Amino acid sequence: MVTRTAATDGAAVEITPGVFWIGALDPGLRSFDIILKTANGTSYNSYLVRGSEGVAIIDTVKENFSMTFFRRLQSVAGYDEIRAIVLNHLEPDHSGALPELLKRAPQARLYISSRGAPMLKGLLHGDTLAYEPTQTGTTVRLGDRTLRFLQTPFLHWPDTQCTFLEEEGVLFSGDAFGCHFCDARLFNDAVGDFRFSFEYYYAHIMRPFRAHVLEALDLIEPLPVRLIAPSHGPILRDAPERYIARYRELSAPGLKNEAADEKTLLIFYLSAYGSTRAMAEAVAAGAQSMSGVRVSLYDLEGGEVAPFVDLIEEADAIAFGSPTINGDAVKPVWDLLSSLTAINVKGKIGAAFGSYGWSGEAVPMVEDRLRGLKLRVPVPGVRARLIPTPAELEACREFGVNLARHLTGRIEKRSIDMAAPT
Ligand code: FEO
User: What positions does the domain Flavodoxin-like occupy (predicted)?
Assistant: First the structure.
């Protein structure tokens, strides 16, 4: 029998004995952090844990929801009972009510991840504040109840941690396992269908950091979790293990490259009159002539961006061929590049090439963007005016060979004669 407890009357909601939801609902929100769509609004989940020797608050709410938060808090505890304030993550949607809470409960100790100090300073505009830095394994006792911290950086900021209430098996997971979905019925077995929001949230918030998600799961999976209390969206009391398993699936690499010992180079291009296409084919031929490299060639005119993002996530190198039109690279190239913020491309090899009519800005612009995304751009781009000559196509081929050498670690060592004039 499902308990249809709802957060409708401004009071706290007990989610398990002695643990209360004291957060706020924001049904009118339509975008979060500017870039994320929130068709159902969101919630800022905050929790209160009552132990035999005091109370802990886990996260607060966005500042303009403070009144609701304090009203719910006061419905179950006095400020003088608060011994610990835990911020699992310092982004303002969870720390907005912190300054006022600290004024109301000056005796409380603040627990944040040891990585949170610079962010706390930024939030408080230079005011200094005493806090307890936590590590994985740090505990806080509230008499008969124990909070244990797990460092889970980048889920979703560097300072993120999770907090585990050992006696009840409650994982206060911060943004992890959360989603932007606003429903006063609060629990996953009572709210509307939020699967889309859960997957969308993972794709946009967690996916760029999936290596960190896997590390966090290594800490979380051995725990006897009976309930997940995230900082947004439904509280996961029904089969929380399913959501943990789903994060494992979503964070695992996709289809493996059949030739696992080969490096992968993806070449994307667009071509108005065939010149950049000819260059792309020459780059591909050069790279493919080297052993240990698997090369794929894609015309962006015939492809959707999303599947390419998945491919790029698994690739070792990407090269973009763009003509210069009106002093710029062409829009599909920018569309694909702008989608790469959803994945981790740091350290991959990037490259650019293309034909042009009179100025040729596209290649350096794309190279700058690749560097901005923290790819390495070790081989200078090649350009050809209008129709590439045989010599320019040979330069493209050599460009492909050099990319392959960098990919496979077969860069020729340069010997430097220290006596030679410079
Ligand atoms: Fe919900 Fe990353 O803040």
Answer: 265-404
Which distant-in-sequence residues (6+ apart) come within 8 Å of 125 by Cβ?
none
Would you give the DSSP letter of residue 374? T
CA 23 to chain CA mean position, Å? 24
**Are 319 and 244 contained in the same domain?**
no
Same domain, 300 and 167: no
Q: Based on the domain organization, do 150 and 39 belong to the same domain? A: yes
pTM of the model: 0.81
Ligand 1, atom 1: closest residue by C-alpha: 175
CA of 99 to the centre of ligand 1 (A): 18
pLDDT in tens, 169-228: 999 999 999 999 999 999 999 999 999 999 999 999 999 899 999 999 999 999 999 999
Say if 282 falls within a structural domain. Answer: yes
Q: What tokens appear for 272 in the block?
A: 């108005």
Does any domain span residue 169? yes
Atom of ligand 1 nearest to the CA of 91: 3
CA distance 1 to 87: 33
